[in-house]
Amino acid sequence: MKVWVKYSVSLFLVVILTVGLWGCTQKEEAVEKVRIAEVTRSIFYAPQYVAIEKGFFKEEGLEIELTTTWGGDKTMTTLLSDGADVALVGSETSIYVHAQGSDDPVINFAQLTQTDGTFLVAREKVEDFQWEQLKDSTFLGQRKGGMPQMVGEFVLKQHGIDPHNDLNLIQNVDFANIPNAFASGTGDYVQLFEPTASIFEKEGKGHIIASFGTESGHVPYTTFMSKDSYMKENKDTMEKFTKALYKAQQWVQENNAEEIAKVIEPYFEDTELDIIETVIDRYKSQGSFATDPILDEEEWNNLQTIMDEARELPKEIDHSTLVNTSIAEKIIGN
């Protein structure tokens, strides 16, 4: 009888310990899914892919579901219809939504890129390029109302060029088809994102002659944003997300283009590794990757100046209305 009791007690303890350990394991493995809708797939967003691939989001207990929604309007529609929790898109989209009188404004909470990401590509090689050489040429630009187009026009005006009078400006080509249009003979010059610009240069289809990012200065070109209601209901998630992003931003700053290219290569299977490395080096050298998630007031005002110059600013919006820096400031402070 004593042996049976002793055995029963031992078995009970084993069961209790097993259940306890299983419970702890379940708690440790519990993750929260965050759905990100990115406006396009671009090496320009390298820190985001680093955060995923280096496990920085996972360290914070977050599982990222990343979807490419191809276009600012589609990205914002996805966010507003609850098809995503977080959108990675240009800050101008949050202004457009606010101007339409949304009851649940879209709030910018973490900046990813801080310059324009496009480059001026010429069909023929240009020695000693001067911006005035663009006059009377056919210029294949970006979609009206988007950041690339607005920054492009802003830079042209800074160099004394009226985009609508001094150029034969083409803006009716869909974003995804612009590279193909240029490759098939449309335009003398084109405004292109990477890695397309570098690929064209390598293949002899065009030549990079200037950077719109260098010319335009700092601007919240691409930021992570979410609906105000989601942020209020998921404060811990927002902090964890921003913390993981900040880790990735620091990692990108501390590592060279070769190391970064190896990490993000799985996201660009159709792009050769040396091209990825070249593009990252180009973006790093011109300071395109934000070094922290804070979208400051000066950048916000610069964005609205660019929008106003392009006659696309519905109304001026105060920085504190659509930007939340408290999360990023808390993360950096800790």
CATH superfamily of the largest domain: Periplasmic binding protein-like II
Task: Give me the strand/helix succession.
Answer: HEHHEHEHEEEHEHEHEHEHHHHHHH
Globally, the shape reads globular
Specify the CATH class of the largest domain. Alpha Beta
Mean pLDDT: 92
Radius of gyration: 24 Å
Which secondary-structure class do the elements indicate? Answer: alpha/beta
State the end-to-end CA separation.
60 Å
Domain unit count: 2
Question: In percent, how much strand structure appears in the residues?
Answer: 15-25%
- What portion of residues is helical? 40-55%
Spans of 5+ residues with little confidence (pLDDT < 50)?
A: 1-9, 11-19, 24-28
The CATH topology label of the largest domain is D-Maltodextrin-Binding Protein, domain 2
Family: Belongs to the bacterial solute-binding protein SsuA/TauA family.
Pfam family, one: NMT1_2
Subcellular location: Periplasm
Protein name: NitT/TauT family transport system substrate-binding protein
